[in-house]
Specification:
This protein is of the alpha/beta class and 229 residues long. It has ten helices and five strands, in the order E-H-H-E-H-E-H-H-H-H-E-H-E-H-H. A five-stranded parallel sheet has the order 1-2-3-4-5, with helices on both faces. Strand 2, helix 3 and strand 3 form a beta-alpha-beta unit. It starts with a strand and ends with a helix.
Length: 229
């Protein structure tokens, strides 16, 4: 199961899923307030997102399963693994927002809030998520997804993941996990604040990519998923 990050949708996983091939059953979700679920009412927070995933997994009868999350989506995956450990057989956490909060400065938090509902600001922010020269087509895909996210839903969810406070609870997660840290995206934070807390975590430093490693390096992400399956 693939869980996207903030102001994104399920399409960010297209290349990773293609790399996995037709022999792998996959489910890529649009969290409430995003993509095809943009019209779903709140609350738009980690707890509700995780509860939605739990309900979907149980309805589909596909538990236990590997949950793959990017950025905020990785924090949702951690919340699910804490709340419903019986549903999760493994975790792939790519550039995860720590369960103890993002630690933004007031200026940094204001900058990100200003991207919600503002296409120009969102494009500027997203263009900085790549390690090298920005791929125009990939950037447009991310901007299109951000444009589907209602401003109120984006701001509500931002406060939830940016100020998350369940780091100690993640120590109880027994499922194997791979924490993927893009080299150009503060990898030491992912080691210290995410991987070090998980009892069965493997830490992988992914070279020459930025926060959106899932679109820059889909083949390598798919291989890591295969390692855990």
């Amino acid at each position: 199961m693939f869980v996207h990050g903030w102001q994104a949708d399920h399409t960010v996983w297209n290349d990773v899923i293609a790399e996995l091939g037709p022999g792998t059953r996959t489910v890529a979700v649009d969290l409430r307030g995003s993509g095809a679920s943009a019209g779903a009412g709140g609350p738009h927070n980690l707890e509700r997102f995780a509860a939605d995933l739990r309900e979907l997994i149980e309805a589909l009868g596909i538990e236990p399963l590997v949950v793959v999350g990017h950025s905020m989506g990785a924090t949702v995956a951690l919340r699910l693994a804490v709340d419903a450990p019986e549903l999760v057989s493994g975790l792939i956490l790519i550039a995860p927002v720590p369960a103890g909060g993002a630690g933004f400065s007031p200026k940094g938090a204001d900058y990100l809030r200003a991207t919600a509902g503002d296409p120009a600001a969102a494009r500027k922010w997203l263009s900085a998520m790549f390690a090298g020269e920005t791929d125009v087509a990939l950037l447009q895909r991310l901007c299109d997804a951000a444009g589907k996210t209602p401003r109120d839903a984006a701001l509500e969810s931002f406060e939830s993941w940016a100020n998350a406070d369940f780091a100690e609870a993640t120590r109880t997660i027994s499922a194997p996990a791979i924490v993927v840290a893009p080299e150009r995206d503060n990898p030491e934070t992912y080691q210290r604040k995410v991987a070090s807390l998980l009892p069965n975590a493997r830490f992988v430093d992914l070279p020459d990519c930025g926060h959106y490693a899932i679109v820059e390096r889909p083949g390598e992400i798919a291989k890591l998923i295969g390692d855990l399956r």
